[in-house]
């Protein structure tokens, strides 16, 4: 059984017996990031995050990315870096509204190709956005192409995402709107 003082967040309903946990939690509300890297502009809420970050400035970087200049002292960090930034489909060239050319970058870690758990990273051909989810990329690209394939049955509004169309259509339902063809 935990005993001691209960700490209540002044901004929300969060409570804890651990004062340190409360301090870290409250910083989410205040935006305070008291731990600063002495080598760059990185700031963080927790001291442990800073300790981990400072390692990127260390000369003791034994694992190097073969696709960019990233270096780290842990194999796990290298694998996460490659998974997030280099594995998957990459669009080549500039904007093309017809066909986009792609190639797949196969990554070999530890002598194995297609390392289990490594997912494809989809990169936007118009900006620096990337995501492991193809559906997220499809929605994102519509920001650039202005494509709005989902149209409301009750009014002329169109949407880039099906979910936004459904939310919009609920406003018609709540207002008891009847489609002209059903009057």
UniProtKB/TrEMBL annotation:
Q: Does the keyword Cytoplasm apply?
A: no
Gene Ontology terms for molecular function: DNA binding; zinc ion binding
Q: Which family does it belong to?
A: Belongs to the krueppel C2H2-type zinc-finger protein family.
Compartments annotated for it: namely: Nucleus
Q: Where does this protein chiefly localize?
A: nucleus
GO biological process entries: positive regulation of transcription by RNA polymerase II
- Which keywords has UniProt assigned to this entry? DNA-binding, Metal-binding, Nucleus, Repeat, Transcription, Transcription regulation, Zinc, Zinc-finger
- Domain C2H2-type, chain residue ranges per copy: 7-34, 35-62, 122-149, 150-177
Any one GO CC term of the record: nucleus
Please tell me whether the keyword DNA-binding is annotated for this protein.
Answer: yes
The name this protein carries in UniProt is C2H2-type domain-containing protein
Q: Could you tell me which species this protein originates from?
A: Halocaridina rubra (Hawaiian red shrimp)
């Amino acid at each position: 059984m935990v005993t001691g003082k209960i700490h209540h967040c002044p901004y929300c309903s969060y409570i804890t017996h651990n004062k340190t946990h409360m301090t870290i939690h409250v910083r989410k509300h205040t935006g305070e990031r008291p731990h600063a890297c002495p080598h760059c502009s990185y700031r963080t809420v927790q001291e442990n995050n800073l300790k981990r970050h400072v390692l990127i400035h260390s000369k003791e970087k034994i694992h190097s990315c073969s696709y960019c200049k990233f270096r780290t002292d842990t194999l796990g960090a290298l694998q996460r870096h490659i998974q997030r930034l280099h594995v998957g489909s990459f669009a080549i060239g500039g904007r093309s509204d017809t066909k986009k050319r792609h190639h797949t970058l196969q990554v070999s870690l530890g002598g194995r190709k297609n390392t289990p758990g490594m997912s494809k990273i989809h990169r936007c051909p118009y900006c620096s956005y990337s995501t492991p989810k193809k559906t997220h990329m499809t929605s994102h690209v519509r920001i650039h192409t202005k494509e709005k394939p989902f149209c409301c049955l009750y009014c002329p509004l169109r949407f880039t995402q099906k979910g936004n169309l459904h939310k919009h259509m609920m406003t018609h339902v709540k207002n008891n709107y009847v489609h002209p063809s059903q009057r």
